[in-house]
Specification:
It is built from 31 helices and 26 strands. It is α/β, with parallel strands linked by helices. The strands form five sheets. It has a seven-stranded mixed beta sheet with strand order 12-22-23-24-20-25-26, sandwiched between helices. The chain has a six-stranded mixed beta sheet with strand order 3-4-2-1-5-6, with helices on both faces. β23, α25 and β24 form a beta-alpha-beta unit. α14 runs antiparallel to α15 and α15 packs across α18. The N terminus and C terminus are likely disordered. The structure holds adenosine-5'-diphosphate and magnesium ion. The site of magnesium ion has 3 residues, from α23.
Length: about 900
């Protein structure tokens, strides 16, 4: 390209000058009615958007280009942003008609995934976040902040543990994550799909003094303390980076920002991202939304705001009793008062995304349809209030009803401070036509009667001709010149014409002769002149007046933003509650009891989303009690028995309960949980491509470090990702540790196919066995899906294989092999396993003061065990060990000659 540079036209020079500032964005360059892209941008856009790639005149060196009409640019921009591109929109900064020389141009906004405002780039019922992460190694502290640009809601946290911040970043999964370019970025960020890393210069975006200045200015406060940021410099830095980036992208003040509040972790039940994934809260294991997720069962919201609140609650349920109980009361009310719920759901139908609408309006990024949607929404508000204050039964409405006296506290609170925004609704209704044009520039926005001036101009534009005719008739009559005619030409514009033959009476003085033809004269009059002037400029004036009125209306609405967002918040809550009530009714859920304590008991618990898939009647409910003597429940049972389901349903019920929702159990008593950890042993996660044993162990390590007395730990087949003995040994040690921690054990559900672990119930306090019942019938097994006390008697792997259709010859052979193996092991049970299975490994906890005495050799015990107990592998060379093994093989390696194995 450089060899072409001298030949570039001024336009290209301007283009390249601007493009230089946005190397990583696709530049949409406005030319007339099109946005054009050039060079590489053109090739990329043509490929991604299926546009025709052309090339500009030869003297430009055949520059590749493509373009989109300006009025449909949003659609194309959305598509590109959806695909992960950044788009810089470069507009004409002056009227091309008035420009002398090249039209001034400049970038008016940059659209990115994390800063998008258009509905096309946003999920209605999910937040889209822009995040910023900053870790200060020297200070040993960092901050992570996240912002929903479309609503202005933002928060963040400061921590001295980088891992904690990282977990939050992964959990909130911002579409774009801002990080300082000088720092190394945690691998997990760059490898998580859906998160785009944006490396920004530390100095310009993250440095503390500027960051602080930016944040305080954007929030209109004097002190960091007003935002709760006085002791969180790193979080301040992250916040500053968010604002800097946002300002750069929006090219204006971040008018949408709500007041910042740091996240109070203590208020929420913490679910890390892996737990969210394992429990399939929002996405299924295959990464998709839809049936099978908790969300799909719970979401009965009618508005985007309600949907986003439900998302927020599901992502961060409560940790404390008070908000849970308040929510339960509201849900109970909407459940009992079907009439209210029905009317409310109906009223909410007309409510659009008031939060995002008001953001677009505040930022002047709105279209006429946004006003239409806002108008509709505001006009639905009276029906919402009416629904809430419906009198009960057939009673006539009383003053108390209208004041909401009978409502539960949370709902009453909303009724009490209700702002129906009538004035705004009236204004919009008075101002706007019912059928609005797609673009403001086309005009046609305002209703007749809204502005006299506009009405006059509209009349001129639409009825100019008939007004001319009226004037003509007036002159004909007044001056008795019935043959007076009206004409038009380019030179004189409109004129009256009268033939000589008709000029019998004197021509009035105000008729000014303009032109004399052979047989006639042409005149103008002041009235005609004035009308003509008005007509000629009416169209232009109307456009600019309409634009001005539009902006005035926009500013009025923008100023009402706090009221709009307060209303949106109230609607979100109502919607959230009615959705919980609706789901409870549809699915037969009941109200759980929550309390400060560490027990948990569920009667007839069900897995809400599995139940939704297999059907209510096909799902077998289960009871589960976790208390002092049953802190850690080991669940055994064959594959497919339902272990994972029981584990997950327990965690999900806790989550639902702490959201304030009713739960799929006939009775639930839940000691408040502060964190839920859910981990699945390697092979269940194969589809996600991260089944390495290493990951599994890192996760386990984290649980052991972080779980506390109030936590709930769900471990599903942990240890499966390695060889049997390794896995068993690790699983064993993990159970021991969890049963010992936090002064009496951490509530843990542990599903395992390591049958050997079931013996731990005898030796460790607080550990108990449960299994999922099956029945053997005619050599087949029948899954009963019932959780019962005690260990499974064996693992039934072969029966499951048979059920799965493994050929009977293979099944038969497997049975033979199994019986030989079992015999060889001498039916070693757990107590013996300590010696038999794990030679050299002292698996009795070292810290236990009185080690359980080694079981005395009993008569039927195999002599190998004794021999094993005698060896000390630490003191042996590999050669000696091998020799010993070979001796044992000679001694005892033959199949035993016990009677049961003779057949
Ligand atoms: P496991 O973990 O023991 O191998 P899962 O929990 O994965 O078994 O359950 C296997 C299948 O059995 C599930 O996909 C589900 O369809 C069904 N299932 C599990 N529990 C129940 C239940 N309580 N009622 C009905 N079907 C169930
Ligand atoms: Mg399983």
């Amino acid at each position: 390209m450089s060899e072409n540079a001298p030949r570039l036209t001024p336009m290209y020079r301007q283009y390249l000058e601007i493009k230089k500032e946005y190397p990583d964005a696709l530049l949409f360059y406005r030319m007339g009615d099109f946005y054009e892209l050039f060079f590489d941008d053109a090739e990329t856009a043509a490929r991604e958007l299926q546009l025709a790639l052309t090339s500009r005149s030869r003297d430009e060196g055949g520059v590749p280009m493509c373009g989109v009409p300006w009025h449909s640019a949003e659609t194309y921009i959305s598509q590109l942003v959806e695909k992960g591109f950044k788009v810089a929109v470069c507009d004409q900064m002056e009227d091309p008609k008035q420009a002398r020389g090249l039209v001034k141009r400049g970038v008016t906004r940059v659209v990115t995934g994390g800063t998008a405002l258009d509905d096309a780039n946003l999920e209605a019922k999910a937040h889209t976040y822009l995040g910023a992460f900053c870790w200060d190694e020297a200070a040993g502290a960092g901050g992570f902040a996240w912002l929903d640009v479309s609503t202005g809601a933002w928060t963040g946290l400061q921590s001295s543990r980088e891992e904690e911040l990282r977990q939050w970043a992964l959990k909130m999964a911002p579409r774009e994550l801002l990080v300082p370019d000088r720092d190394e970025v945690p691998l997990s960020f760059s490898t998580t799909p859906g998160i785009q890393l944006v490396r920004l210069p530390y100095r310009s975006h993250f440095e503390l003094p500027q960051a602080k200045e930016r944040v305080l200015a954007a929030q209109h406060v004097q002190e960091a303390a007003a935002l709760g940021l006085e002791k969180s410099p790193q979080l301040m830095q992250a916040c500053g980076a968010l604002i800097a980036y946002l300002e750069q992208m929006q090219k204006q003040d971040p008018a949408q920002l709500a007041p910042f509040r740091p996240l109070e972790k203590g208020r929420y039940l913490i679910l890390d991202e892996i737990t969210e994934r394992n429990l399939e809260l929002f996405f299924r294991m295959d990464g998709k939304r839809g049936a099978g997720t908790l969300w799909s069962v719970m979401d009965h919201t009618r508005t985007p705001m309600g949907g986003r609140l439900l998302e927020e609650r599901m992502r961060c349920p409560w940790r404390r009793l008070e908000p849970i109980v308040r929510t339960q009361e509201a849900v109970e009310f909407f459940l009992a008062r079907k009439d209210v719920r029905k009317a409310l759901r109906e009223a909410l139908r007309g409510v659009y995304d008031m939060e995002r609408l008001s953001t677009r309006i505040a930022l002047n990024r709105c279209q006429p349809r946004d006003f239409a949607a806002l108008k509709e929404s505001l006009r639905s508000l009276p029906a919402v209030l009416d629904a809430l204050t419906l009198p009960e039964g057939d009673r006539l409405s009383t003053e108390d009803d209208r004041r909401g006296e009978a409502l539960p506290e949370a709902v009453r609170h909303i009724v009490k401070k209700w702002d129906g925004l009538d004035d705004m609704a009236d204004l919009l209704t008075r101002a706007l036509r019912d059928d609005l044009p797609p673009q403001i520039t086309e005009g046609g926005l305002f209703r007749q009667g809204y502005s006299e001036e506009l009405d006059e101009l509209l009349d001129l534009v639409e009825h100019g001709e008939s007004r001319l005719q009226a004037l003509l008739q007036e002159e004909q009559k007044k001056n008795a010149m019935p043959r007076l005619k009206l004409g038009y030409n380019h030179v004189f514009g409109y004129y009256f014409e009268l033939s000589r033959a008709q000029q019998t009476s004197p021509i009035p003085e105000y008729f000014q002769r303009r032109q004399s033809l052979v047989n006639s004269d042409r005149f103008t009059t002041p009235a005609l002149q004035e009308l003509e002037d008005k007509m000629l400029t009416a169209s232009e004036r109307r456009k600019s007046l309409e634009y001005r009125l539009y902006q005035e209306l926009r500013v009025t609405m923008a100023e009402a933003r706090p009221r709009l967002t307060a209303a949106a918040e109230a609607l979100a809550l109502l919607d959230f509650w009615q959705s919980l009530a609706h789901a409870a009714e549809k699915n037969g859920w009941s109200k759980p009891e929550l309390y400060e304590g560490a027990d948990l008991s569920l009667r007839q618990g069900r897995h809400p989303s599995v139940e939704a898939v297999v059907g209510r009647s096909a799902f077998i409910p289960n009871d589960l009690v976790m208390d002092e003597s049953r802190r850690l429940v080991l669940i055994t049972g064959p594959n497919m028995a339902g272990k994972s389901t029981v584990l997950r349903q327990t965690a999900i019920i806790v989550i639902m309960a702490q959201m304030g929702s009713f739960v799929p159990a006939s009775e639930a008593r839940i000691g408040l949980v502060d964190r839920i950890f859910s981990r699945v042993g390697a092979s269940d996660n194969l589809a996600q491509g991260q089944s390495t044993f290493m990951v599994e162990m890192m996760e386990t390590a984290r649980i052991l470090r972080q779980a506390g007395r109030r936590s709930l730990v769900i471990l599903d087949e942990i240890g499966r990702g390695t060889s049997t003995f390794d896995g068993l040994a690790l699983a064993w040690a993990v159970v021991e540790e969890l049963s010992r921690r936090a002064g009496g054990g951490i509530r843990t559900l542990f599903a395992t196919h390591y049958h050997e672990l079931t013996g731990l119930a005898n030796t460790l306090p607080g550990v108990c066995n449960m299994n999922i019942a099956i029945r053997e019938w005619n050599g087949d097994i029948v899954f009963l899906r019932r959780l019962i006390p005690g260990p499974a008697d064996r693992s039934y792997g072969i029966e499951v294989a048979r059920l799965a259709g493994v050929p009977s010859s293979v099944v038969q052979r497997a049975r033979e092999i199994l019986s030989q193996l079992e015999a060889a092991r001498g039916k070693a049970r757990v107590a013996k396993l300590e010696a038999a299975v794990l030679p050299g490994l002292d698996i009795r906890p070292a810290s236990r003061p009185e080690p359980a005495p080694a079981p005395a050799p009993r008569a039927e015990e195999h002599p190998l065990l004794d021999a094993l107990r005698a060896v000390d592998p630490d003191a042996m060379t590999p050669m000696e060990a091998l020799k010993l093994l070979s001796d044992w093989k000679t001694l005892w390696g033959r199949p035993p000659a016990s009677p049961e194995n003779k057949k």
